[in-house]
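Q: Could you write out the predicted structure for this multi-component system? I'm mainly interested in how the pieces pack against one another.
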Amino acid sequence: MESHASLQLTTPGSRYSARQKTGLALIGVGILALLVMLVGDGTLNPALTMGVALAGFLLGSGLLFAGLLQRAPGVNNNGIWFSGATARGMAGWIMAIVFTGFYIILYWTPSNLEQLVRGTDALSSALRGRPADQWFLYGLFYTLAILIMGARMLIKYRDNKYQILRTISVMFFQLGLAFILPSLMLLLNEPEFYFSYFWPLKYDYLWPSTFSSLTQGPGLGIFLLFWTAVMTFVATPVLTYFFGKRWYCSWVCGCGGLAETAGDPFRHLSDKSTKAWKVERWMVHSVLVFVIVTTLVLWINSWTGGGLLGGLSQEFSSLYGFFIGLIFAGVIGVGFYPIMGSRVWCRFGCPMAAILGIQQKYLSRFRITTNGGQCISCGNCSTYCEMGIDVRWYAQRGQNIVRASCVGCGMCATVCPRGVLRLENGSMKARYNGPVLIHHDDVSVQLDEAWQRERPLMPSVQEDLPILTDEDLGTSPV
Amino acid sequence: MSRHIVIIGNGVAGITAARFVRKLSAHRITVVSSETDHFYARTALMYIYMGHMRYQETKPYEDHFWTQNNIDLVRGYATQIDTQSKVVRIADGVDIAYDALLLATGSKSNLFGWPGQDLPGVQGLYGMQDLALMERNTRGISRGVVVGGGLIGIEMAEMLHARHIPVTFLVREQSYMDYLFPKEESALINDEIVAHGIDLRLGTELKSITGLDRASAVETNLGDLIDCQFVGLTAGVHPNTDIALASGIHTNRGILVNEFFETNAPDVYAAGDCAEFDADGIGSRRVEQLWYTGRAHGKTVAYTLCGHRRPYRRGVFYNSAKFFTVEYQTYGEVPAQPDPHIRSQLFRQGRALLRVNSDRKTGQVLGFNAMGLRLRQDQCEAWIRSRTPVDHVLKSLAKARFDSEFQPRRVYSRAAATSD
């Protein structure tokens, strides 16, 4: 019964307008310009060629996404499972290989990117007062990906305020706090500091080496330490208590920002099986343990002047940096978007997500509420959950969704065709509502008491607020 | 004592029954289906065609769920029941003996003997086989005609539209679903259909379908000829009673049951779309063909199948749908025609519409219609059940909001303002 169209680059029924074709052509020019810089002999002006590439991407995607404006507002995921790019077809695999390969070159043989890096020198000098390096190039590409694909999100979900605000938020935090501000810090001879990243995601921000460099250096060092400590130990738990981990994962974080924008076309590729859930729990919490142990070991080492652990702590931290920081977060995390969905890193690897998740599960007001018996089990919510949560499993039994991994992107509620799901912050008391009966009195099953004692099938419905007050009942003067 | 409970049909009614029998007992359970190996959400058929999901995404439970819960699944077509020796005959398969049998055979598309209705390229849409057929029938076509302005009709129009296939939509009524919707709701959906570029022909019926080796045109009752290569017949569905008819089980429109879902044959039950409540049973609406009612039937009958015999009781009516991009929810009593006993208050803003009905005499709230809005079912039901004064309901409508966060809706404040 499946459509075997996944190897086609376009859907049989889809038609590209002249404007969209122009957009695609401009993107093609952009890719060509990048290729020339990668393999060319360097005779072309690098700044100019980079300018052509970026202009091609910006204008081309602008023309392409403008097409979305002509569709009626509202969820439109038409053809996602037919397109090779978004359904693990040929285009998807090519993209996966290109992204993964880019990370490998970036981390291990950055000299191959020399011409590309030189192409960003002009911008780097203006922003940071120094020539570019591969990390500046990477930061620029990363930020542009979030901005361009963020614009696409804003158009695609233009009738949903939650999605709009959230997207503007990740675009702002990436551009302002993770790109421009760190650059300006360098310009002002301050440490290159990312205000929107905290330990344990930015694992070295609580390592002794960072402490000593910040305290010994001039300028803002002490303030930055203070910022890190307050954000990690005060702001994060407080915000997570009130809003769940979404305040960070899908509103602020750069990894989340890329996943929510550039990763949006791939969100449905996450694995929803219970098996994947098991793997996820083991993996992500192991990484959390790993980073905590690494941090502790480094501090013990630092306090004992290296006497206790010797070189071990160094090895530990470089192991973490290599396997988790580079391979997991970068190569697999982003490279595998078109194969495993947009949140591979966030779901299986991010220690920040793990720690926020634990709090979200046990000490937070956030939950996704289900709307009585309205679920039709269609599966859109589960399909479009980038974290691989089988949302439908809860929704169809009328149970609130309280899951450690939920990043609160709100897409389950957005794609639901029956208005069944709603992200809410409310009293902790009523979060775990148990499987509420699908329709409270659909069956009016008055089980005899003995039977009920034997099998307590229906947990009593807890209510956040009393649904009916005296006023509702008309028993007191209105 | 363990009994063998056999269920014919793996739709929502049959599967819900199976799940609840398992929750309640250790009886042996066998579910027979000729449609698919596993339960899938029929409501999601359209999304498969539109490319939002694949078949596997529409399965509400992973495949291992059934073995884990010890529910046997048999792929086969049940043709007849021997009610004397309590055996179900499976075409090209092994007979299955039962202690209790539940018929949950669903519906079939209505055909009204239109000339040309059997031509290739003409079909209804109810099950997985229909979807596969539609996939083949609509490849490379330049126009499809959908006949019948109901829920499946508008879904089919949306499906074709999603594949960039031009659609002509023939609707017998003067306005879309005006037999169910008050005129404002109906008009809003008309607009929505037209806004999507659908060629909507109201007050138009199918006269005949013409074509040699496949459908090539339809003629309407107004004499218009419409060239097309595909005709979707979506003029409603009727209960699938084939197996009951072949087995001497009483039927009318559907398989006749009492409020315990018992047919005239001992230990044979029927529930879901295929069942029809007999006269002394359940009041109006003898046949219920909604997802929600199928689920409620399945759950109720499970208790009876497990020896805890209890009647089916309806709660406050509710239903929901989505018409292209417009979501719709209804709770309680919202008749299509103005009713002298009902005060109907309408609040609108852009594409959002909220109707609140109340008793003209007592002022108590009776029902809600919401379009482009999401209401909280718990709250709406509680108000209706407790006969809350409508003035108070309007004032506290914010409590019933289920729209996503930050979604501005002036409709609610307008409603609140009128209650002063």
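A: Regarding packing and overall arrangement: Residues 274-303 of chain A form the longest helix (30 residues).
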